[in-house]
Amino acid sequence: MSDADTSGWVVAPSRYIARREAGMAVPAPQSIYLPMPDGVRLAVDVYAHRGRRPTLLIATPYYRRAARVAGSAAEVAPNIAKYRDAFVPRGYNLVVVDVRGTGASFGTRDSFRSPRERADLAALADWIVVQPWSDGRIGSTGISYLGAAADFLASTGHKAVRAVAPISAVWDTWRDNYWPGGILLTALVATYERLIRGLDLNRKEMLTGLGTFAEPDYAGPLPVDGDDGSLLAAAIAEHAGNFSQARFMAEFPFRDSALPYDAGFTPDAFSPCGYADRIPADVAVYSVGGWTDGAGYSNGAISRFLTLAQNPRHLLIGPWDHGARTNCSPWRGRVEPEFDMMAELVRFFDHYLMERDTGLDREAPVHVFSQGDERWLAAADWPVAGGSAVFHLRPDGALGEAAAGRTVHATDPRAGTGDATRYERIAGLPVTHPYPSWPAEDAHRASWTSLPLPEEMRLAGHGVVELTVESSEPDAAIFLYLLDVAPDGTVRYVTEGMLRALHRAEIEPPANQRATWPWHAATRAKAAPMPKGQPVEMRVVLLPVAWRFPAGHRLRVSLAGGDADHAMAIPYGRPPVLTVDGVSRVVLPVMATGA
Description:
Layout: H1 13-19, E1 30-35, E2 41-47, E3 53-60, E4 66-68, H2 81-87, E5 93-98, H3 115-129, E6 134-143, H4 145-155, E7 161-167, H5 173-178, H6 186-200, E8 218-221, H7 230-238, H8 245-249, E9 284-290, H9 297-307, E10 313-318, H10 341-352, E11 366-370, E12 375-379, E13 387-393, E14 398-400, E15 406-410, E16 446-450, E17 457-461, E18 464-471, E19 477-485, E20 491-500, E21 536-541, E22 545-549, E23 554-560, E24 577-581, E25 585-590
Parallel strand pairs: 3-5, 3-6, 6-7, 7-9, 9-10, 10-11, 14-16
Antiparallel strand pairs: 1-2, 2-5, 4-8, 11-12, 13-14, 13-25, 15-24, 16-23, 17-22, 18-21, 18-24, 18-25, 19-20, 19-23
């Protein structure tokens, strides 16, 4: 089956791009050093046409272009090529910058997604609009870090910025990326630390196994034009002063934590949502995500869409991993997505930057892909599903009606999910077959399984597990998995949710992070240990998904006290015993039959 745009669209992106002219030559990039207001020089590539045209600005920490070993024919701009090849032949200028402290740029990085980088983007926009090839209109896009930079650019309030399209990009770095549910993803921190240090210091030996970054034909960042290598060497020497990702992220165990040497520097400082109120209401925003995209990138795409309700806005979530590099649907026909992401982005920027008649204004603002259905669904808003189905976690191991009694689970510190999951791709690890199998019998987890469904059930949105649970320890990590059990016994991973029990207190979502699902404060003031010998109520939100359970399939909910392959242990060296009351239940977002 395919994720191609054969359903759900008035004008399919593939149809639009097929008739969109693309005959302009791609000019050779000019590479320069551009000084920022504080004197730091950034390496910038410019692909500019004659005449005045809209410009896309992309900021990357992953090299604007790479140097190649002698004789290599490898793509010189592996992180940028898709944007160059989609937009420049269609009449856009393209400006690509190595963010400060990375690539060939000078300076140091003081943070992950530093506020200083945001200030640089405003200076770059000032420079672009006075160039002879600029028509005064700027857009931005990119995957992950690049997508968050697009949000940052929009939040500068620069009048030239008209449209941004963040792809697989966080809205809240703390919740969506590193501390989902208040639980640190230690494996991600370690891998990403190795990645950015390897890139920033041009230490090739540190990049082994990290996908494109480990390509043997690449030899570090490309110097700017006219540099004999001495300027590049000086820039890389400055990078030695960059922050440590592992140490930096460990500074923020609470959502309101601040750096000990800078009381105002909380996760809002390095999260796009922290600047949401500075994004002008006339900036168009296309939020793109995937159902199997990291710890919460899909939440980020949805929250951005909900928060910027006054903006021209669009939401697209496919059956994809981080960056939409893999179609993760178990029913896919091939690994690579068939949906043409660049086609839809060209249409988006054509509409808002070039003011062409694209048909985008006749499309529903929300498009999500239903796995199992293998089709796109169009909707007027989020959430997509309007109904619900409820299953209780019975003491006999069944999902069904509520029953008296309790399930006692001694959490197993060996419980993990392997090395082919939604998390690996975030740090560049090449995973093309996520969740290849799930054990039919899982000794490391407690499980509850429903009777065979009498008719199909189609989900679209956030499931919520409402637990009444007692812990033998004053804290615990709660990991919950929703699984699809086929009649032949095959068990397929659907989605998951996690929550640190300490952070179970809920509040209304803040204005800069709108949500339609339960919102945990995760602040120091709201943190509360579990009372010994006393059950408490908490709600664990499952990551959103659109999924069809056929008639005859069974649902399964599994509980673990951790994910040894990805997350910190809570509490250290004291695996808790969790006692789940039979009134606990999972509430699933169900679409109406025929929807």
